[in-house]
Design brief:
about 100 residues; mainly alpha; about 65% helix; ICMT_MeTrfase; Isoprenylcysteine carboxyl methyltransferase; membrane
């Protein structure tokens, strides 16, 4: 589990490094900036959240905290569900706005 947590951190920093100044914790679409399609974003639409979920499972399990891992993962997935809907809507609207008519 420690290796999984370290790999999740590696993925998170790869995401941050790929997005550079575009990385933030808010849902912000900057008009005129293209969607990022390099680094981990070539294969995954939201790789940072893969890291968050892996970390939320792995870190408690480093100390065999099954209950914490379970409760946190369920609560986190509920929050991510809302967050992903908001982000996907914003990305879709940005893509539509960027498409010439």
């Amino acid at each position: 589990m420690l290796a999984a947590a370290v790999l999740a951190q590696g993925l998170r920093w790869w995401c941050i490094g790929t997005l550079r100044e575009q990385w933030n914790t808010r849902v912000v679409i900057v008009p005129g900036l293209p969607l990022v399609d390099r680094g981990p974003y070539r294969r995954l639409r939201h790789p940072n959240y893969v890291a968050v979920v892996a970390e939320g499972i792995a870190l408690p399990l480093v100390h065999t905290a099954w209950l914490t891992a379970s409760i946190f993962t369920i609560a986190n997935l509920a929050m991510l569900n809302v967050r992903l809907r908001v982000e996907n809507t914003a990305l879709h609207q940005a893509a539509e706005a960027a498409t010439p008519r």
